[in-house]
Amino acid sequence: MSDEQRAVTITEVAARAGVSISTASKALNRRGQLRNETRERVFAAANELGYQPNALARSLVQRRSYTVGLLSTESADRFNIPLHLGLENALGAGRVAVFLCDGRADPERERFYLESLLSRRVDGIVVTGVRTDARPPLAGVPLPVPVVYAYSRSSDPGDLSVLPDDEQGGRLAAEHLLAAGRRTFAHVTGPPEYAAVRDRLTGFRAALAEAGVPLPDERVRFGPWREEFGRAATAELLAGLPDVDAVFCGNDLLARGALDTLRESGRRVPEDVGVVGFDNWGVLAEGARPPLTSVDMDLQGLGELAARRLLSLIEGNRESGLVRQPCRLEVRDSGGGPAVR
Amino acid sequence: MSDEQRAVTITEVAARAGVSISTASKALNRRGQLRNETRERVFAAANELGYQPNALARSLVQRRSYTVGLLSTESADRFNIPLHLGLENALGAGRVAVFLCDGRADPERERFYLESLLSRRVDGIVVTGVRTDARPPLAGVPLPVPVVYAYSRSSDPGDLSVLPDDEQGGRLAAEHLLAAGRRTFAHVTGPPEYAAVRDRLTGFRAALAEAGVPLPDERVRFGPWREEFGRAATAELLAGLPDVDAVFCGNDLLARGALDTLRESGRRVPEDVGVVGFDNWGVLAEGARPPLTSVDMDLQGLGELAARRLLSLIEGNRESGLVRQPCRLEVRDSGGGPAVR
């Protein structure tokens, strides 16, 4: 919401028109019995002050539509499910309804949905994505409603973005494996172009460094987010570093691949090598051999956080920048260490 | 948006009906003064050309809220993502907006959302679930708006439900494995309380019977939808039926377990044993060793179908009962047979 639009209230319109607030409201809502001259005076005042159409819209029905838009800008992803659940939790079942739009990584489609949402007079918009890297702000122009970016990050520092704390998540993995007495660490992760990949590595490496444990570059393998790469990268690691005793993987698919290669190379997990994944993707983690210990980003909590911040913005509060929500560790069997808080 | 939908424009409808575009628009929008004969000619042309939902959606301006509710009655499931995408495709990006509500298998929450949707005057509701078994109709009383059940089935025969054709999907699996020359079949599947489990087995068994291939009951293993069960059931099967050369699994998680056990028992897939899964869950099927051939329910298509039927009901057409949409086979490596249409 731009400052200008926010500044102009019905009180100001009424004052400028020299009428009561109730009369101004009736005029703007096109309700009640008013003389044409009065009505026109109110509209003139509204125009002069730049009392904008969306504000008019809000004023029509209790000033709000009690709807918000959830705009997934990337193609649909399972990440959206817990985000949506969290959003619903925080918005209060049924009190604020959620329009869901899937932009499918198509900027034209995204603009189209944005217009649709605005024409439906949503009270606010949550933008979700599948990457934590900065992206251009929605529409590229000031919008008449507040926007929160969730698991998505606006490049405009004036916008508000809520993200998982990937760096702290990387720390959790390191601390868990260190606590189990591991000393020879490796990391198999996604493409280095992902901010999440770099952040997780940063936290992982920092926690190891604090414990005096090195992580040379050759023990960090970047590649696609796929099981095959998890298998291949782990095989390469084992060839060059046969006494590796801890592998942190950037997601659970990579960890599944790592577990398979470790088992097939004769390593026992967690006795010989501890493995920690990232995402805590239920069926993958539970079906793994052994069941996979994994960092959980609490996406549902992230959805709730985004919704609470959006409601706060809708209330008129101002907030911008970046909010990082902590991750937690879901301890199963593969790490071999005790639970880390 | 499918090619079909994209192909047919109001210009073509007008040409086919032998009227001006303006007249065609009036007819389809139910506006203006037109002779009944003209109006009917336009509708006939629209039907012949398959001028479907998007156009109809546009035609309903001013008599509708242009919103529909998507009410997931079970707890959130990845099945909902393609269903939602299909719904969006058929509703026309932005023209009809979708309220998404997650009932989380809680009847009280479901009722609450239903009331919320009705108070927002949605034009119709799509109910989705995670089971194809009959469920009580929404609310249990006649509703003021049309409802379509998608991947969910109303026990009221007066309701309209659209489901994947699980029986035909089971047939596809059998035909694919038979075409590869398999003769000793087994089936590892989910709990028999699921209609989908029984339907897939029925189709699978029927296609085998037609080929003169038996499937005795002891070669059918029912259990939880989990990888562990896929592994354990396959190990049991191998113990009793060492020359099994074809395993059809009721979902991809079970198939992943079956592939692991087969490989670890020294069987080559597909050379010694062919395996077919069900769901065509991308990351699981692609990451499998070998990549998994799997029956695809085309959930996005199912969402489109549900949306088209809902728009038809909103138009005032009456339709009830059960629509079964065919499955298709995604052929990768594990089946070893040629593609089945």
TrEMBL record, chains A, B:
A Pfam family assignment: LacI
Keyword terms: DNA-binding, Transcription, Transcription regulation
Keyword Oxidoreductase among UniProt keywords: no
PANTHER family: HTH-TYPE TRANSCRIPTIONAL REGULATOR GALS, LACI-RELATED TRANSCRIPTIONAL REPRESSOR
Superkingdom in the source lineage: Bacteria
Molecular function terms, GO-annotated: DNA-binding transcription factor activity; transcription cis-regulatory region binding
Name the record gives this protein: LacI family transcriptional regulator
Domain HTH lacI-type: 8-62
